[in-house]
Amino acid sequence: MTDLAARAADLLHLRRRHLAKGDPVALPLTMTSMFHLPGDPAGFAQYGRFDNATWEAVEDALGHLDGARALAFPSGMGAISAVLTALSKTGDRILLPSDGYYTVRLFADRFLSRLGITADRRPTASFLDGGFEGYSIVYIETPSNPGLDICDIAVISKSAHAAGALVVVDNTTMTAFGQRPLDLGADILVSADTKAANGHSDVLFGHVSSRDDAVMAAIAEWRKLSGAIPGPFEAWQVHRGLETLELRFDRMCSTAERIAPRLRDHKALKAVRFPGLPDDPAHNLARVQMDRFGFLIGLTLETAEKAEAFIDGCRLLQPATSFGGTHSSAERRARWGDAVVPGFVRLSIGCEPAEELWSALEEALDAVG
Ligand SMILES: *Cc1c(COP(=O)(O)O)cnc(C)c1O
C-alpha cells in the first residue's frame, strides 16, 4: 500500500523531471505526422507512425504505475490483439477464459484460427484445472468481466512458466491501483484504458506493459508495422485522466464496499456478486491478490423486465455498456449474449457521494420490488 501511495504521488511529478526552464508544466499536445528531419534520420523522431511525444508521456505514466515499460494502443482490443498476434505463430495453442471479455474469444475464432493458432477456453474460477502443458500463451482476466470470478495470478504464472507459456493478464477491471499482475509473476499486462484509467467516458484507449524486453520489442514492432497507433489527442486525454485515477478509484471502490452489503440484503435482489463481500466465492483469494475489491458489482434481479426497470428508473444510473466512468452506470449483460441469467446487471460504481448514490439505488430497487 505504501508503495502504491508513493507511485500515486510520484505520478503527479513525473513530467517535471524532464522539464527545462520555461517549458509548459501541462503536457503539450503534439499533433504532427512530420518532423523536421534534414540529413541522417538516425536518433531523431522520424514519422508520426513511429514516434509521438504525447504517446511517450502517457506511456511513462502507465509504465510508472505498472512498474514496467508500457506501449499505448488505440483501444483495449488494439492492445490485446497486438499481444496475441505479435507473439503467436502457426501451430501455437493459446488458452483464454471462457467467461472473460467476449471480443477476445471472437478475435481468436475469426482471425487467429485462420493463421493456424488454436484457442482453448476455460472458466476463470477453475482455470488451473488441466494444467498448461502445450500452451504458448495463457491469458487470464481477473476479476472476470462480467461474472466477477477470480483466479490466482501467482499460482497460474508459476505453473504456466513451468510449462513454457507466457502469462498475459487483462487488468482492466482493477487498474494498477487495485491489482499488480506483473508483481505476482505475470509476463504481460493488457488494459482497456477506455474504462477507469481514462475514466471520463470520452475516449477509447489501451496499453500493454511488460518487464520482458524481447516481448516489448515485438509489440513495438507490431504497432509500428501494423499501424495500430493511438491518436495523440486520445493519449493526451488519458494522460490527464490518469492524474486523478487514484482519487477516483479510491472513491469508487470505497463506495462499492459500503453499498454491496446493503444490496445483498435488499429483497429485490436474488444474488449479489462482489469480491469484497465475505461470503463471495472470490473473497478469500481477492483479499490476498488484490489491493482493493474494485468498483464493479454483479446484481441478479428476478426477471429481465425488472432489471431494465431498475436501470431505467434509477436517477443516478447511466444505462450504457462499458464501465469505469465518473458516473455510475449499469446494463443487463444478457442483451449481448453473455452467459448470464436474463436478470443479471453489471453495476459500475462511479464517483457520486456514496449515500446519495445509495438512496437512488434503494429507491429504484424498492420501486421494482
Ligand atoms: C472493454 C474491455 C476490453 C476492450 O477494450 P476496448 O477499448 O473496448 O477495445 C478488453 N477487456 C476488458 C476486460 C474490457 O472490459
From TrEMBL:
Enzyme class: lyase
Any one biological process term the GO annotation gives: transsulfuration
Lineage: superkingdom: Bacteria
Record carries keyword Lyase: yes
InterPro entries the UniProt entry points to: Cys/Met-Metab_PyrdxlP-dep_enz, PyrdxlP-dep_Trfase, PyrdxlP-dep_Trfase_major, PyrdxlP-dep_Trfase_small
Pfam (any one): Cys_Met_Meta_PP
Gene Ontology MF terms in the entry: cystathionine gamma-lyase activity; pyridoxal phosphate binding
Signal peptide boundaries: none
Record-listed E.C. numbers: 4.4.1.1
GO CC terms of this entry: cytoplasm
Co-factor(s): pyridoxal 5'-phosphate
Keywords, in A-Z order: Lyase, Pyridoxal phosphate
Post-translational modification N6-(pyridoxal phosphate)lysine, affected residues: K195
Entry similarity comment: Belongs to the trans-sulfuration enzymes family.
Full protein name: Cystathionine gamma-lyase
Lineage: Bacteria, Pseudomonadati, Pseudomonadota, Alphaproteobacteria, Hyphomicrobiales
